[in-house]
Amino acid sequence: MTAHALTRRAGYALALGLSASLLFAHPADAQQRRMPPGGAPAAAAGGGGSNSNASFIKPYDEIVTDKFSTKPGMFLVHTDGTKVLYEIPASALDYDMAWVTQIAETQAGSSFAGMPVRNRVVRWEKRGEKILLRDVKYSIRADTEDSVKLAVEATSVPPIIRAFDIKAWGKDQAAVIDVTDLFTSDQSEFSAAQQLNATGVDSSRTFIDSVKSFPRNIETRVLMTYRPRPPQQGPGGFGGPGGGGAQRDPSQSGVTALIHHSMIKLPENPMQPREWDSRVGYFNVSFEDYADDSTHEVQTKRYITRWRLEKKDPDAELSEPIKPIVWYISREVPEKWRPYFKAGVEQWQPAFEAAGFKNAIVAADPPSVREDPDWDPEDARYTTIRWLPSNIPNAFGPHINDPRTGEIIEADVRMYHNVMKLVRDWYFIQAGASDERAQKLPMPDDLMGELIQFVVAHEVGHSLGFPHNMKGSSSYTIEQLRDPEWTKKNGTAPSIMDYARFNYVAQPEDGAGLMPQVGPYDHFAAEWGYRQFPKGADEKAELEKIVKRQINEPMFRFGNPNAFVDPTQQTEDLGSDAVEATRLGLANLKRIAGFLIEATSNPGEDYGLLSNMYNQVLGQWGREMVHTANVVGGVEQINLYFGDADRRFFPIDFDKQREAVRFLLDNALATPDDEFVNPDILGRIEATGSPDRMLARQRQVLGVLMNGNRIKRMAEVAHTNNNAYTPAEFYEDVRTGLFAELDDRAVEINVYRRNIQRAYVDALAGQVAAAAADSDAAALARLNLATLRTTIDERAGRARSDTTRAHLADLAARIDKALKTD
């Protein structure tokens, strides 16, 4: 969950993983790394016999000299600060491993710290006197023993990523190879160049930073410098997407980032997979299945990503798991926040109880440095929550899973320090009217702790396999959101994985709950994905029984973000009635704007915090208005399958669409309320700019309303329904509402209205210019511009001021240009 993970981006799953089911054989003591007498001859090839190229393979001590330090683990790893040698035991060859590459740290203006780069399955193989690193794919499969399997295998040859000379033989035929260049070169399979908007690596400015070997994984960090692509001015600034909101310095000759490589072994005994169902939200791994020809076409199968939970007592309705999911709160997490981190993790316990598991997920402190100096959060045996010193207002919860089955084995939630600013700003503008603790900044620690707990619970949800569910919040009514008992029990939305932040609908007098929590949908989804069924049970039939609860209970439904089509699947929204939710939300925003100066200002401080919070208020204003705009031409999707429903798509009630347009004309596309353009605030933060700021948000609302696809949907619905809200009615309503002043006996148009009226004319002119055969937008735009042109001619003489007279003349000229008339 980030300014993007909690907003747009968030929560993604790294589609690879590992299991603790098997530990490779390896020397346990680093001091035993020297080959003992009687070991494999220095020149012997694997499996014995003479070596045809004896000069190629050298004695062990000539390769692994005293300059190297040795770290035991999955492989023996030898490093001397600049070179990395792997000593690979024979038991580790021909074994599938996950290789996950991420950007651990980066310079300003180049991606974000913690962002994924690549993930794939690799396999180390011996071929003669070389070790091959191969790229293993599971994208096509045929779990059968007939000719189809042979055909699939013939098209699934693992590509060779690198071939390494065997430099020496260690104990028990362990091959020693030099892998330094694999990490310090721009190997395309692991390259971060694209994410950093860069090209090849500059080897003179690239260094091995650290290498750690653990029983199940090897972690390597490389400080890499890439050559930047030529600066290009764009939305993300010079050189591409900004890191932490900054722009890359175009004078810099390199892009330097700390690149983190994790190599992790996959389970020897794969978990029993569970097939994905679009009606329930889970991350998934997919592949083409050629073994099933029952439908006479290639089948795409998906397995959900989930942890391997097995009951200690399979016959008990509620049992502790054999191996619980343990989340370690990493050592660097500030002491005062640690209890809230733990509470955020264990907030999921009731959801797993719904699936039949008691204490399935627990939070723990790691051992102290004194207790275990070797404990390391990068060790894949530990699932951790990290606290990163960064000004990025961000947090996210990736996980690594086995692409063969979807089994999650390891996850690491990462919380950037400045996520506190993110939730502080959100809570202030959404719940500040109802919570006195938020009405003076900084907020008290107990409130900040609760907000951090919410973030942790959300990100842990991602690491449990759950994606965002934007459908849930639309199932709560406005009345329920204002009900203290309901909100205390059920939170602000059925799922903490929704982008339903804090309760901006509840009014101060309601006393309603304001925080999201792990809710009814989360319990439902955990039960569907994690329930263990008795031996012999028909799992598919049992799962179908669970999912059928959605038929009569909207709280259990799932939906991806789809705001521009389905207003019940929006981000940042609350409630089943977007118009009423926005009406109540605006009332709260006005209250907050009323105490904005008092809340943000202290003697001896500047007005930076006031400026930030004022912009946050306007940002929330814009979000809520867009929620309402999406009602117009909206179509709700209810994802029920054949036999449970006769249709899936339902146009939004036509009267509700008309109400939404009237509301926007009165509140969004009108002169802003005094609270939002308060001179007492504006005079402290800027000399000028309020009309421009408001116009930017009004343009956004107008753009959403006049979107071409929206007009096409309205026309299609109107074709089969005589009571539909037609595009022609919509265009007329918007035009007459935006130019209501022209009906006055004395016409006076203020600066805010002049701005939005020009924006409207320009928007329609754009539709005329982009005329297409599949849309009525251009025709309706032309008609309404012509009608407006006539009205201006008729009413221009009523203008009270030269400014209004000039404005109307300018609009007429713009319309003439758009219609290409003399």
* Spans where pLDDT lies below 50 across 5 or more residues: 1-55, 233-246
Major beta sheet, specifics? 8 strands, antiparallel
- In round numbers, the mean pLDDT is 88
Q: What would you call the structural class?
A: alpha+beta
Can you tell me the overall shape? globular
Number of strands: 25
Radius of gyration: 31 Å
Strand content range: 15-25%
Number of helices: 22
Measured as a percent range, the helix fraction is 25-40%
- Spatial separation of the terminal alpha carbons: 55 Å
Write the layout of secondary structure elements.
Layout: H1 60-63, E1 69-71, E2 76-79, E3 84-88, E4 96-106, E5 116-127, E6 130-136, E7 140-141, H2 147-154, E8 160-165, E9 168-169, E10 175-178, H3 180-184, E11 198-201, E12 207-213, E13 217-228, E14 255-265, E15 284-289, E16 299-304, E17 306-307, E18 325-329, H4 338-346, H5 349-354, E19 361-364, E20 383-388, E21 395-396, E22 399-401, E23 407-416, H6 419-431, H7 445-463, H8 478-481, H9 484-490, H10 520-530, H11 539-547, H12 578-594, H13 596-600, H14 608-629, E24 635-637, E25 649-651, H15 654-667, H16 679-685, H17 690-705, H18 708-720, H19 727-738, H20 751-769, H21 777-795, H22 802-819
Parallel strand pairs: 7-15, 17-23, 18-19, 18-20, 20-23
Antiparallel strand pairs: 1-2, 2-3, 3-10, 4-5, 4-14, 5-6, 6-8, 9-10, 11-13, 12-13, 13-14, 15-16, 21-23, 22-23, 24-25
